Structure formats: C-alpha cells, structure tokens
C-alpha cells in the first residue's frame, strides 16, 4: 500500500510561484513513475508533469518552461516548482504513483492540494 500526501498549495497572484511537495510512504514495490496531475473546474484531470524510473520527464504542454518536477533519490519526495503562475493554473493538484507489486499493477493518488491564482 502506498500513501501520498500533497502539501504546498495555496493562493498566489498571477506571476507568482509555489512549490508543491508530494510525500510518499508505504511499500511502493516496483515504482514505474511519479508525478503531478491537476483538475481544473469543468475540465478532465490532466498531466502536469511526471518522472519515470528511467529518468524521463514529461510535462503538459501548458506548463512547459514554467514548471519543474524533481524528486529525492529515494523516491519519497516529489517536488513541483511552479513559476509564472497564471489564473488558468488554478486547480486541485494531485500526486500520483504508478508501479506494481509482484504481478499486480497499482495507481495511487493523493487527496489533492488546491492552487488558486488570482489576476
């Protein structure tokens, strides 16, 4: 079982910055990837950024050049540095971990943290 807890959300004015932190605990077996997704009002949940165990990093098109994902060496902490925030970045941000235990895959989510950007 994997537990994910997000922190660092809040309110900021346009142009500002925030750093989100995802803290992972529990047995993550073989981890495939960790990352961040967001759910904006009226939209589907979308990829913000993720890192796979091979070191590859993916960003959603709308955040490229503004957001940076990183992690600690133990994969217990995943960070999302968000710069040049815009009102359209307002969303609930979720941490995600994907992997498998033995032959069973898993897909865990945190409870989310609200990010609100005012103009």
Walk me through the structure.
This protein is mainly beta. A hairpin with a 6-residue loop joins strand 4 (30-39) and strand 5. The protein contains no helices and 11 strands. The strands form 2 sheets. Strands 2, 4, 5, 6, 9, 10 and 11 form a 7-stranded mixed sheet that branches. The chain has a 4-stranded antiparallel sheet with strand order 1-3-8-7, with no helix packed on it. The protein is elongated.
Structural class: mainly beta
Rg computed from alpha carbons, rounded to a whole number of angstroms: 14 Å
Order of helices and strands: EEEEEEEEEEE
Strand coverage percent = over 45%
How many strand units?
11
Largest sheet: 7 strands, mixed
Low-confidence residue ranges: none
Through-space gap between termini: 40 Å
Shape: elongated
Helix content: under 10%
Helix-strand blueprint:
Layout: E1 2-7, E2 10-13, E3 18-26, E4 30-39, E5 46-52, E6 57-59, E7 67-71, E8 77-82, E9 91-101, E10 104-109, E11 113-118
Parallel strand pairs: 2-11
Antiparallel strand pairs: 1-3, 3-8, 4-5, 4-9, 5-6, 7-8, 9-10, 9-11
What are its keywords?
119 residues; mainly beta; single chain; 4-stranded antiparallel beta sheet
Summarize it.
The protein has 119 residues and is mostly beta strands.
């Amino acid at each position: 079982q994997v537990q994910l807890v997000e922190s660092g959300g809040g309110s900021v004015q346009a142009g500002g910055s925030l750093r989100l932190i995802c803290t992972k605990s529990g047995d993550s077996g073989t981890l495939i990837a960790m990352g961040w997704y967001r759910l904006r009002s009226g939209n589907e949940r979308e990829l913000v950024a993720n890192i796979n165990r091979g070191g590859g990093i993916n960003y959603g098109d709308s955040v490229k050049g503004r957001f940076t994902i990183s992690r600690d060496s133990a994969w217990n902490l995943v960070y999302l540095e968000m710069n040049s925030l815009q009102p359209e970045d307002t969303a609930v941000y979720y941490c995600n971990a994907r992997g498998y235990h033995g032959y069973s895959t898993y897909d865990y989510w945190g409870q989310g943290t609200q990010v609100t950007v005012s103009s």
